[in-house]
Specification:
It is a single chain. By secondary structure, the chain is an all-alpha fold. The protein has helices at about 1-25, 30-40, 45-60. Helix 1 (about 1-25) packs across helix 3 (about 45-60). The longest helix is centred in the first third of the chain and has 22 residues, at about 1-25. The chain starts with a helix and ends with a helix. About 0% of the residues are buried.
Length: about 60
């Protein structure tokens, strides 16, 4: 279970780093489209975890 979670976080970390550089050139409209996409694809609990994780990454990169 822990290993699976860690692998998912590793994959999402790579994805978030890619997204960070692409989103830095994108306007807020596309970011909200991306949020809607996440909420549709993933359950609410998981998406909240991912949103918190993304926010932490943004804070760390800034």
């Amino acid at each position: 279970m822990n290993r699976k979670y860690f692998d998912i976080r590793n994959v999402s970390l790579k994805l978030i780093i890619k997204l960070y550089f692409s989103l830095s050139r994108v306007n807020m409209e596309n970011i909200s489209i991306f949020k809607i996409f996440i909420f549709n694809k993933i359950s609410i609990a998981n998406s909240l975890q991912i949103v918190i994780f993304v926010l932490l990454i943004f804070v760390l990169l800034n």
